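Private note to self, pasted from the team thread so I don't lose it. Backbone tokens:
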């Protein structure tokens, strides 16, 4: 007797193969049989006539690390689940919430305030502690994590600039290896953020060699997506070439209109690198705006010491003016980790008018959510720099930003389309909803947007290829050997949707709108979403790379 039978399905298997009709039987957590199966042989049957059945979507770039540690995780994750995500990979952009030391704990708490849904206890230290916490609490979807390079560097050197001593590097390598032993899928780098921005290429190659020993993946929010875009691409390729490790560019993009033409060249560089034997690919989100922490608008020297260091400098009048001058005038240079350089000046690339406030913690200042920094300055009768700096001081740094002009703008998405269609690309959200403020619409709409807008309406790529980029492609990059495909013996993570109706509804102004057309979401054989209803269950698994 099967636990679940899906009848008359139009199956898109995740490999890129043409769709085919079949029934699909599940026994327990796994797909048991694909073929013609009689009704009455299962405890529950779903009639899937005129519906697509495909593997559950794997979001290889999530920032829901602290959401999964929250008692309210199901509420915060609902938009992600309803768009068909069945597996999430955390710890991206160099930001993981483990490992921690006594010294680094407060630094990382302040650093991650923009993605924290509430005042969590932070009562873990190792990666094993964190994963065990998730396991004990239960998770609605499958979840795994990378190790943030920034978290490991914070243990060895805090948020201070400069090169590591040999002992410091060995300490980083030890903590990284420990996390890989405990189940991390690799290392992520966030090289426009402190403390990752202070590292030179040699340090990153040394750490990538550790990851290679565990057959892990190194991902990177590269040094910059504007002036230094191609130099940053070259650095990531070099890391892969010299370490022998698989490398992956996170949310590939070009920020600022004058830099959009770099996308084609960066893709060409990745193709050429693969021709030399470098295992490189990328992910991207189908929007022309990105979300990150507001403190990313400040130069590297101002971020030394983490949030506390920046706060002290912003309160010193002369230092504040020096920071403002750099934000307004400094052009990113290379090598960007040298004193006096900067990998990615967001304000100079986009302008104050294209940076919007996404989330502010206090009720007093919520009136500024959804405004660009030029408008915030007008409301506060201050220059934009002083306005946002004063708000950050009030909010202890915990403000998020939406940046427009990323691989396109409100008028055009032509640059973005190159990233959507290229064979090396996969899809990801790079988004999180913590229950307040304005999240990025990607947290509610990424996958339905691809399937509705770019597959059905605009025919930019075939359905089977789009599904491959959402399923088997990220599974392969991460080394998930029994997910991402509809195969007998694979875990039954499935999405059932109407290809004629599926579409995203989330917008920048109203991001918390669920998509249309997704009828069922199945995680490890259990129905999590059923005809518009989210069941209050936690069928997900905590995934470890060595299991």
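Design output:
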């Amino acid at each position: 007797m099967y636990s679940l039978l899906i009848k008359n399905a139009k199956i898109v298997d995740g490999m890129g193969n043409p769709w085919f009709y079949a029934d699909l039987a599940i026994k327990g957590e796994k797909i048991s049989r694909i073929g013609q199966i009689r009704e009455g042989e299962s405890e529950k049957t779903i009639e899937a006539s005129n519906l697509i059945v495909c593997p559950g979507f794997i979001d290889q770039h999530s920032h829901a690390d602290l959401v999964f540690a929250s008692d309210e995780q199901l509420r915060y994750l609902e938009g992600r689940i309803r768009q068909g995500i069945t597996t999430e990979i955390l710890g991206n952009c160099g930001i993981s919430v483990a490992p921690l030391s006594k010294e680094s704990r407060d630094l990382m708490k302040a650093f991650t305030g923009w993605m924290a849904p509430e005042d969590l206890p932070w009562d873990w230290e190792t990666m094993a502690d964190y994963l065990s916490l998730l396991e004990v609490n239960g998770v609605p979807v499958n979840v795994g994590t990378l190790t943030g390079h920034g978290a490991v560097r914070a243990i060895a050197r805090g948020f201070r600039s400069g090169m590591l001593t040999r002992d410091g590097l060995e300490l980083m390598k030890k903590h990284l290896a420990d996390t890989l032993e405990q189940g991390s899928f690799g290392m992520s780098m966030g090289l426009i953020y402190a403390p990752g921005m202070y590292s030179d290429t040699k340090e990153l190659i040394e750490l990538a060699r550790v990851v290679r020993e565990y057959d892990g993946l190194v991902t990177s929010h590269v040094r910059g997506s504007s002036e230094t875009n191609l130099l940053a691409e070259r650095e990531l390729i070099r890391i892969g070439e010299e370490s022998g490790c698989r490398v992956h560019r996170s949310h590939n993009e070009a920020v600022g209109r004058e830099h959009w033409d770099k996308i084609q060249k960066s893709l060409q560089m990745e193709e050429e690198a693969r021709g030399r034997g470098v295992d490189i690919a990328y992910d991207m989100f189908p929007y022309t705006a990105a979300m990150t922490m507001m403190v990313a608008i400040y130069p590297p020297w101002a971020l030394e010491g983490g949030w506390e260091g920046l706060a002290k400098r912003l309160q010193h009048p002369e230092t504040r003016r020096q920071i403002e001058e750099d934000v307004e005038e400094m052009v990113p240079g290379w090598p960007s980790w040298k004193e006096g350089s900067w990998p990615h000046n967001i304000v100079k690339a986009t302008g104050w008018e294209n940076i919007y406030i996404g989330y502010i913690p206090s009720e007093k200042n919520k009136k500024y959510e959804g405004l660009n920094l030029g408008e915030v300055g007008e409301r506060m009768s201050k220059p934009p720099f002083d306005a946002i700096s004063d708000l950050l001081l009030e909010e202890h740094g915990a403000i998020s930003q939406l940046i427009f002009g990323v691989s396109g703008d409100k008028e055009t998405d032509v640059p973005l389309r190159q990233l959507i269609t290229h064979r090396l690309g996969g899809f990801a959200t790079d988004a999180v909803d913590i229950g307040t403020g304005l999240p990025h619409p990607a947290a509610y709409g990424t996958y339905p947007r691809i399937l509705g807008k770019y597959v059905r309406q605009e025919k930019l790529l075939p359905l089977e290829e789009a599904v491959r980029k959402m399923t088997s492609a990220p599974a392969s990059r991460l080394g998930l050997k029994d997910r991402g495909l509809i195969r007998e013996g694979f875990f039954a993570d499935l999405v059932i949707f109407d290809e004629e109706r599926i579409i995203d509804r989330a917008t920048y102004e109203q991001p918390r709108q669920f998509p249309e057309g997704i009828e069922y979401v199945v995680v490890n054989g259990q129905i999590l979403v059923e005809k518009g209803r989210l069941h209050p269950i936690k069928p997900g698994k905590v995934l470890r790379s060595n299991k």
